[in-house]
Amino acid sequence: VLLIFAKEDKQSDGFWWACDRAGYRCNIARTPESALECFLDKHHEIIVIDHRNSRYFEAEAVCRAIRATKPAEHTIILSVIPHTSADQDEISVVPLLHAGFNKVFWENSSIIACYNELIQIEYGEVRSQFKLRACNSVFTALDHCHEAIEITSDDHVIQYVNPAFERMMGYQKGELIGKELTELPKSDKNRADLLDTINTCIKRGKEWQGVYYARRKSGDNIQQHVKITPVTGQGGKIRHFVSIKKLCCTNEGNKQSYKIHHDGKCSGDQFHSESHAFRCKNRRKESIDVKSITSRSSDAPSLQTRRYSSVAKIHSMTIEAPITKVINIINSAQENSPVTVAEALDRVLEILRTTELYSPQLGTKDEDPHTSDLVGGLMTDGLRRLSGNEYVFSKNVNQSHGNLPVPVFINDVPPCIAHLLENEESWDFNIFELEAVTHKRPLVYLGMKIFARFGVCESLNCSEVTLRAWFQVIEANYHSSNSYHNSTHAADVLHATAFFLGKERVQGSLDHLDIVAALIAATVHDVDHPGRTNSFLCNASSELAVLYNDTAVLESHHTALAFQLTAKDNKCNIFKNLSRNHYRTLRQAIIDMVLATEMTKHFEHVNKFVNSIIKPSEESISNSEGSDCGCTTSLKNFPDNQTLIKRMMIKCADVANPCRPLELCIEWAGRISEEYFAQTDEEKRQGLPVVMPVFDRNTCSIPKSQISFIDYFIMDMFDAWDAFAHLPALMQHLTSNYKHWKTLDELKCRSLRLPPENNNGS
């Protein structure tokens, strides 16, 4: 803001302090000469000129002098005029407007009055001027754009064409501006009713795109892909039409036909025509891509992300979304297809335009209430709110285990515990025996052993004492009162993760920092778990649900708390000696893996893993005669693939209970069922929606719930993980355990084990 006041007074002070309050940079000029010099240097958006007294300078002359400069084109100039007495005539604003002023301000030295005036100018005229200023940049972009651009009025009078349009059509800009489109020669290769179809569509305010033949100035016919977008102005009236035109690249001598669809309301036409052979001059990579010949839908998010190559030229690359390319290829494949095939592809396109590409539609696969309840409880955020029910679980953030003994170094482990840990590399390792001998503190002992095996202390550059203190703090913040989500579960997931990392193909696909991140993520992945699902917390409007906006509530809390606890005390900060870059990389990997354990994204993670890792690997192995060494090396070269592997690994470790030996599997099934029973009991007590009604301790069939869980979540995921990591022992346990639950279900038994009369080994 530039204030032009000959003398300092209350009015100039009012504007000065108003600028300060609004955060504007402000200059003050006392003479017309200094004002013009300052303006030419600073290019102010707003100028306030004192028009109350002509004794010092002529305000209108100052305004005209400023308006005569080029930078003043977009500047707002405000005239401060004196109040008139009752017996004086009102001052006309017309002379002021002719002099170049935009607004008048009646003298008022109140800071708030000055502030309000400046704020209104900013949000009104100044921001409008910003848009006008940007027009030069927009037209510069259009002039350098490789697509032909044509802008017409609502009655189809040409108002602008860019150089690319001139090159494509052979006309000069001066030959086109001001002419109606009907005055230009038309190609006779279009269908007779095509123009009527296009006009009907765009006059309704709908976008049209399709293939159109145009005639160049030389008389040649050229085939273009045209996209015409109506531009609405004030009152919703169509003011302009913007046409983007690209040459349709065809192979020489081939016939091209396109089936064009328009958002269900403006139906397109199928064109069969023999196109002229020509070479498409494109400065991008020499590749032919099927683009922009696509089904158009106003509510299709994937299509709204289409970027035309004019934008892509900025980086000399295409930035079209992969899903858009898939849709374009399918559209192209519909050419000359039989009606049944075309209809099937239309259905495919409808599915691809949904936002939930990886989530199965509940109720279509299995009508079993156990399955629907389990899936609904684990894969929804439970956004059914009841007012007045506030659930806040008691969270005691502990820093130590009190007086319980913990090992200072690995060699200080009691003999009975050390003996059990000798078998920790086996998949059949009994975590419940370790839980018993450690008095429900298995995580610190197993964790120290596993972290030592993988050299975590060396990677983090921290001492064993620091690592032990960290394990102690993390384990203290698992709730031993939970039947399932306690430190034993964390230790079990850590054990499974370490087992998977011991597999040659898994280890060979990951960097050492990834391995460290995976072990830490497994350790902290459920810290401070309240023993209730995300759906429960959302329905109860818990503090955590409110904090994390009902999205991945627990998983977000686990990661956040883990890093808070680690950084809170230098004695347990295992990250304190890492460089900033290593810490950021490690942190992001840990967060990503813990968030992957949230079940709402389960099918997305599994499908991405199968499509990006398993299928390409199988093709690579078959092409290299059975060897997967090269495949493993290539995986390590792609960080996105490593991320998919880490997510899949911790997901499988988190729900590996059905793949454990039968006795361990049965124990875990009983524990998770008890936790769900307790949640159902509390939901009924508090009057909350019952998320999983089948988990009623009086009626639930645990075998049925296990069968549903294995069928819906486990079997496909572990088939894929086994195909990558080669885990025959796990798959044998899974098959055997599944038969166990099936047998119990067939006997209508709701318990965990066979009755004695049936348990005869047959």
Automatic annotation (TrEMBL):
Top-rank taxon, per record:
Eukaryota
Query: What name has this protein been given in UniProt?
Result: High affinity cAMP-specific and IBMX-insensitive 3',5'-cyclic phosphodiesterase 8B
**Which source organism?**
Sphaerodactylus townsendi
